[in-house]
Amino acid sequence: MATWGDLAAYVRDQYDVISEDSDEMRILYGFEHLDEEDERTQVVILVREVLDAKHEWVQIASPVGLAAKCDLRALLEEVGRSSIASGAAIMGEHVVLRHSLPLETLDIHEFVEPLSLLAGTADQIEEIFFGGDNY
Questions:
Q1: Residue 112 and residue 106: Cα distance in Å, rounded?
Q2: pTM of the model
């Protein structure tokens, strides 16, 4: 990968894109490749970020629920125990898990594996703390 355009083309080819604009893509990440009977999905948002007006990054984020509706301390402790590829943040009213990667030297495995880990962790956190599959 070298640019946002390269990553966007790859994502369009490999994932279920549910919305897109020039600097953001939303995909519906499915888990059926891990378990044919698993119908859960996770919305994952990919955003192009530019640092210092020259360095392109991709931010991978996935909402898990409303911040006001959970024990944030317990959620952060669980993310600390169960995640190696994401951190938790509050964006707007939602708790999200997110991870960022520089695009300039990005190998596809450096994108696919963190994306998969983040989506799986977000799905798990959503189930534990919000009791459903709303995102």
A1: 11
A2: 0.89
Q: Would you call 19 helix, strand, or coil by DSSP?
A: strand
- The whole-angstrom separation of Cα 42 and Cα 64 is 9
Residue 49: both structure tokens together:
């970020």
Amino acid occupying residue 76: L
**Under a CB-based contact definition with an 8 Å cutoff, are residues 112 and 15 in contact?**
no
The Cβ-side half-sphere exposure at 106, using a 13 Å CA radius, reads 24
pLDDT in tens, the chain (135 residues): 678 999 999 999 999 999 999 999 999 999 875 556 667 899 999 999 998 888 999 999 999 999 999 999 999 999 999 888 789 999 999 999 999 999 998 988 889 999 999 999 999 999 999 987 777
Tell me how far apart the alpha carbons of residues 94 and 96 are, in angstroms, rounded to a whole number. Answer: 6
Please report how the helices 72-82 and 108-130 are oriented relative to each other, as an axis angle in degrees rounded to 10.
140
60 contacts: CB under 8 Å, gap ≥ 6? 44, 45, 46, 86, 98, 99, 100, 101, 114, 115, 118
From residue 60, alpha-carbon distances to 29, 63, 85, 126 in Å are 12, 10, 10, 16
